[in-house]
Prior knowledge:
CATH topology of the largest domain: TIM Barrel
Helix content: 10-25%
Number of helices: 16
CATH architecture of the largest domain: Alpha-Beta Barrel
Bound molecules: beta-D-galactopyranose
Shape: globular
CATH superfamily of the largest domain: Glycosidases
Structural class: alpha+beta
Strand order of the largest sheet: 4-5-6-7-8-9-10-12
Strand content: 25-35%
Radius of gyration: 30 Å
CATH class of the largest domain: Alpha Beta
Amino acid sequence: MDCLRNILLLSCLFTSVYAATVSHDSRAITIDGKRRILLSGSIHYPRSTVEMWPDLIRKGKEGGLDAIETYVFWNAHEPIRRQYDFSGNLDLIRFIKNIQSEGLYAVLRIGPYACAEWNYGGFPVWLHNLPGVQMRTNNSIFMYEMHTFTTLIVDMMRKENLFASQGGPIILAQIENEYGNVMGPYGAAGKEYINWCANMAQSLNIGVPWIMCQQDDAPQPMLNTCNGFYCHDFRPNNPNTPKMWTENWTGWFKSWGGKDPYRTAEDLAFAVARFFQKGGSFQNYYMFHGGTNFGRTTGGPYITTTYDYNAPLDEYGNLNQPKYGHLKQLHDVLHSMETTLTQGEVSNVDFGNSVSATTYATKEASSCFFSNANTSSDATINVQGRNYTIPAWSVTVLPDCKTETYNTAKVNAQTSVMEKKGKDKAKKMRWSWRLEDVEEMVMKGRGDATFSKLVDQKEMADDQSDYLWYMTKVNLDQNDPVLGNNSSLRINCTAHVLHVYVNGEHVGSQWAKDGKFNYVFEPTVKFIPGVNIISLLSVTVGFQNYGSFFDLAPAGITGSVQIVGRNGAGAETAVKDLSTQAWTYKTGLNGFKNQFFRSDRSSSGWSKSNVPTNRMMTWYKTSFKAPYGTEPVVVDLQGLGKGTAWINGNNIGRYWPSFLAGQDGCSEVCDYRGSYGSEKCRSNCGQPTQRWYHVPRSFFNPKGKNTLVLFEEMGGNPSLVRFQTVAVTTVCANVYENNVLELSCNGKRISEIKFASFGNPRGECGSFNKDTCDASNDAVAVLTKECVGKERCSVNVSEVKFGASNCGGAANRLAVEAVCTI
Ligand code: GAL
């Protein structure tokens, strides 16, 4: 008994010692009464693996973050009503504890609507199928389920003492997500719903503040926050709410058929610095690590498997340089100004032409921001007798109001050249194969359920599979006017991908090539007198995740299906509507049901000879040795069509390398000046939308046999498939005088300094050249001594180190290119 009391006492002491009071005033979030400048970054736990989490979080911390933010993904945790899954990379508690053990705070966006380019915005499809439900509005069935799930998550966190009020890392929680952006069409019921959300959240007594993003009418005490590429002009809806930015989009997501969006480090830093200049005190990067949409988790329709997002950490967890380093330096400067920024008196001077200075002054110290939002002209201002030149579209940060410590347009951080490496003449993989058995469906039209209507795929398949067969039989009299050589089958369609079979033959496939998910597909079909079997395979590629009533967007074959008779000139002569006759349904494919993707399955039924290519509905299997080393691994699926890939039974996501990005609108260089939008800077034109697919190291058997299984839905050639590792091969930097050069080969050693010049060098990484001035000391020799053989080095960039240059008083720069050991 005594023992129990002691344990209780101890645990009570433990929590009370570490419990923190999180609150806020008009200036900032306060922790134990102290106003804080908080920098946070989004890492979504299911978009990486448990093994990757500690490294990602540590890199967040080293990059100057105070907090990690994540959504909670309802449909991942409750795929079937009241059957929960918190295993593997869905172990939310473990993720939050990882954050805690790094000494960081956590921001938990429970939602439970997330958006996030996640399948159905995070809603389970069973929720849609509850009779009488209406989502995200004043509907008791929906509200009951939302309350149940939110309470479950809150209780799980509370039980593990994870709220800051209990000594845990969670300092903020979010309810709903950007409802304000879409609530108009929900009318008065929407308003009632958002009030209910606030009351419900508040009633859970979590002891830390709740936020509602993009919600101008957020009821008190909810803190309304901003999302966007820029949020400097945001004003919270209550004078007592601090200015907070929950999503600073570090790049953008990608869709099948789309190009690779990227956002420059200069513009991202500019947005952050301007936000803090204008009184911001909490900022979160969406995403800090984007990661991978494994399995069937992507939203959309048509969000790709990669969710790299051009974030500061790339899909595989590598530092995305110079973005990561440039932001890290900004974070250090902002943190050094925490007291002045959160306590100082604010004064502004407007210099005209979008140039302004802001001072934060306490009795002891002052900090300044000089900004130039002009898109083309640099500006020089005179402050207290000194001249400062501010490049266009940049902010200069001066922690003491005198010394320019950071300018958002001057990137001193290193650039890393990442390369995919693998043996070019890799031993050819030996494939075995088998066909997906579609006979019952295409020859006989047999399924599991029959209805006299076309049913939405969400209702019929309940998100248990991408695949749903719609089958019907039509008996045509030999005099039927729809018969003839030019007849066609007209399908009004919202299938993300559609494969059409008539009488056992594949007559065509279609998908939303131009991003329009509502299309008509009308292949020519030779119908026969007597019974015809029509089998339509509808395939989903991620359910819609955003918009008012997004949950109601149709999926599958919901429009009419008609047989159209035509004369020799192609004109319509007769139409037979099949939409309300008996349709038989079958969810899923046999190979999925029989788990062909599992590595422990026997090889019977698989053949090693005559491996087919360009054959749809084909399974391929091979075994291989795990790539050596610790670097991230990708599998190159060039040559394949569309399908799903598994490594040792782990679903690494949908692949679709045959879907090429459009030809136009890419730029190798992107002018950081001027407002960024998701279409501004893009690469990868004309290439497969996604050719390389991440295979986390933990999916491999490092010593034994590994199995790769592909289900090829559209037809492709697996002979080019190979594994590669992603490694830093070259690092470069271009550092202004009086800053510090930091070079790192990401855990490998620097083997050679290929180029270095202190003066006014020209060019870019890979093509640097000396120009008119170059310092007296041999920069290559200086850096070889300081850096070669080391994993990282820091060197002061000054004339003391590199000698005098003959640049005639202009500031020097050091350009360096170094090689990393292979
Ligand atoms: C926001 C949303 C995020 C994500 C983002 C785009 O509107 O809140 O979840 O979808 O857009 O990446």
